[in-house]
Structures are given as structure tokens and as C-alpha cells.
From TrEMBL:
<feature type="domain" description="Enoyl reductase (ER)">
    <location>
        <begin position="10"/>
        <end position="323"/>
    </location>
</feature>
<dbReference type="Pfam" id="PF08240">
    <property type="entry name" value="ADH_N"/>
</dbReference>
<dbReference type="Pfam" id="PF00107">
    <property type="entry name" value="ADH_zinc_N"/>
</dbReference>
<dbReference type="InterPro" id="IPR036291">
    <property type="entry name" value="NAD(P)-bd_dom_sf"/>
</dbReference>
<keyword id="KW-0521">NADP</keyword>
<dbReference type="InterPro" id="IPR051603">
    <property type="entry name" value="Zinc-ADH_QOR/CCCR"/>
</dbReference>
<dbReference type="InterPro" id="IPR011032">
    <property type="entry name" value="GroES-like_sf"/>
</dbReference>
<dbReference type="InterPro" id="IPR013149">
    <property type="entry name" value="ADH-like_C"/>
</dbReference>
<dbReference type="InterPro" id="IPR020843">
    <property type="entry name" value="ER"/>
</dbReference>
<protein>
    <submittedName>
        <fullName>Zinc-binding dehydrogenase</fullName>
    </submittedName>
</protein>
<dbReference type="InterPro" id="IPR013154">
    <property type="entry name" value="ADH-like_N"/>
</dbReference>
<dbReference type="GO" id="GO:0016491">
    <property type="term" value="F:oxidoreductase activity"/>
</dbReference>
């Protein structure tokens, strides 16, 4: 089969189309013929060597396709070996494409528990773009933050995969959502997708500016921060509000005013990609019919994975980039 193989870590040029043999699936696993594979920033970190993947290696966490044993159209949950607890993954947890060969290929082997029916009305590209950002957003907003209909939500970083999916899920839940963004174009894209409004987070005063847009100007019930600005994000919360953090691509370290934190009665909630139970909750919410599919920014042939990564790293897209074998 054709697959993208990296024999070393580095820039996008290490992603090379190669003919490889597909291993037989292990017990409890099935083979899926990939129809589309979506890119995530996680794939860039794998390519750079952050997760010490075995070499040579095929990356890729997200995908959708057809089960070769039953012919069913499915999408793939990239959360492997979650474990028995729902509050946090077990010690053996990994993401598809970390150590296990991923979805940048014509075929992939995955655990049967990591498959769900392709949502009705979704294209292959939209289905492939859903699992990682979908289950991550669902776990952050629903499982961890307990977001409810009628509550106010602020999403940091409009245009990113998780941020865009979270906006869609929040609409399905019935929350009132504002965003921050790095450009007017990304704010406009978020408003077109259902956000009530937003501000640029390029000024240090943005938490106070966006807080003025919250109900009564008192702050938001929930703030979702997938980029690492949560020392600023706390300033946009109402007293007793919840901050959910799940990324650090902008900043990996923050300094907090401890007194303001505990006097504010804030809840700080760390989260990651979810497991099978979160996946079921996500699919149930989508089945209710109120969640828009992920927007697709661009589609590339599988053989152009390197160019797709360059476009992802440019950071200018609103929506997901997808590979098609």
C-alpha cells in the first residue's frame, strides 16, 4: 500500500510517499481503508520528534474510511488504550500515530472500540476532520467544564481546529459564545460560524475588552483555552467561573496571582483528548442534529503530505487540512 513514511525527524520534507506492507490486525483490531485523513498540530509534533516515535514511522491521528471486514463506513477515534477510568487516561494511553502506525496511508489497523459510524450527511473530509478535535472539545466543554444551555463561553484562539469545533459543539449545547482571535479574518470566520462576537488577543488588555461583551460585563461562565494564555484567560472569567486548558502552542509557562485566583473562586481544569465514553457522548450530540461539521480549509493528495504540513504550519487557515489517498 501507499503510505507517508518518515525515516527521521525534522521539517515537512521528511514526509515521503513510500510503498509499505500492511501488518495483519492484532486480535480485537480491524483494518480500515482510509478515504480521508485530517491533519492536526499533534502530527507536526510527531514529525519533529516530540513523542519519540519509532522510525521509520507513518504519522496521522485522524481518519475516516471503510472497514474491510464489514464494508461499514466509519470514522476513527485516535485515542488508544484509554483504560478503565473516565476521569483520566491510564498509563498505557497513546494517540494513534504516536507509536502505532497512523492514518497517512491507504489502510490502517485500529481497535474495534475506536470506530463509530460515519455521521449522516458528512463528507469523507468532514468525517476525517471530526474525531480528534471533536472528542477533545467535547471532553473539555462537557465532561470537564459541564457547560450547559444558556451559559456563556469564551473560546481563545478562533480558527484553530479545537476552537472551531468547540464553537460548533457549544451551539449544539445551547451556550452563548464569544471568541478571541489573532486576526480580523479569523474573528469574521467565527462570527459566520455562530459566535456572537469577539476581540483580537494581540493587545494585553484583551481580557478586559472581551469581558465587557459577557453577560452584564461580569465575565464568562466558562473559558476554553487551547493555546496556553490562561494567565490572561482567568481575567475574563466571572467569579466562580471555570477555565479549561488543553494546549500550550503559544505559551508553556504562566505566572498567576494566587490571591486573585482563590478570591475569585475559580476552577482550573486541565484536559486532553477524550476516550471512548467521550466519543460516544460526542456522537450522540451530533446525532441530535445541532452540530455543524468541521469546516475544511484545503484538501491535498496523500502524496503531498509535506506540502500540507507546510500549509498547516503557516497558521493562516480557518478550518481543517485533509489528505485524500
Amino acid at each position: 500500500m501507499k503510505a507517508i513514511v518518515m525515516s527521521e525527524f525534522g521539517d515537512p520534507g521528511v514526509l515521503v510517499p513510500t510503498d509499505v506492507d500492511l501488518a495483519d490486525p492484532r486480535p480485537g483490531w480491524v483494518t480500515v481503508e482510509i478515504r480521508a485523513a485530517a491533519l492536526n498540530w499533534h502530527d507536526v509534533l510527531v514529525r519533529r520528534g516530540r513523542y519519540a516515535s519509532p522510525l521509520p514511522h507513518t504519522p496521522g491521528a485522524d481518519g475516516a474510511g471503510v472497514r474491510t471486514d464489514t464494508g461499514e463506513e466509519v470514522l476513527i477515534l485516535p485515542s488508544l488504550f484509554w483504560g478503565d477510568r473516565t476521569d483520566a487516561p491510564g498509563a498505557g494511553f497513546q494517540i494513534l500515530g504516536d507509536s502505532t502506525p497512523g492514518t497517512y496511508a491507504q489502510y490502517v489497523n485500529v481497535p474495534e472500540e475506536c470506530l463509530a459510524p460515519k455521521p449522516a450527511g458528512y463528507s469523507w473530509e468532514q468525517a476525517a476532520a471530526l474525531p480528534l478535535v471533536g472528542v477533545t472539545s467535547f471532553r473539555a466543554l462537557v465532561t470537564r467544564a459541564g457547560l450547559r444551555a444558556g451559559e456563556s463561553l469564551l473560546i481563545i484562539g478562533a480558527g484553530g481546529g479545537v476552537s472551531t469545533m468547540a464553537l460548533s459543539l457549544a451551539g449544539g449545547i445551547g451556550a452563548h459564545t464569544h471568541v478571541t482571535g489573532s486576526s480580523e479574518e479569523k474573528l469574521a470566520g467565527a462570527r459566520a460560524a455562530g459566535a456572537a462576537g469577539g476581540v483580537l488577543h494581540t493587545r494585553d488588555s484583551w481580557p478586559e475588552e472581551v469581558k465587557e461583551l459577557s453577560p452584564g460585563g461580569k465575565g464568562f461562565d466558562v473559558v476554553l483555552d487551547p493555546v496556553g494564555l490562561w494567565d490572561h484567560s482567568l481575567r475574563a472569567l466571572r467569579p466562580g467561573g471555570r477555565l479549561v486548558v488543553l494546549g500550550a502552542n503559544v505559551a508553556e509557562h504562566v505566572t498567576l496571582d494566587v490571591r486573585k485566583y482563590f478570591f475569585g473562586q475559580f476552577s482550573l481544569l486541565g484536559t486532553t483528548m477524550g476516550g471512548p465514553e467521550d466519543f460516544r457522548g460526542l456522537m450522540n450530540l451530533i446525532a441530535a442534529g445541532d452540530v455543524a461539521p468541521p469546516p475544511i480549509a484545503a484538501t491535498y493528495p496523500l502524496s503531498d503530505a509535506a506540502e500540507a504540513h507546510r500549509r498547516l504550519e503557516s497558521g493562516g487557515e480557518y478550518g481543517k487540512i485533509v489528505l485524500v489517498p
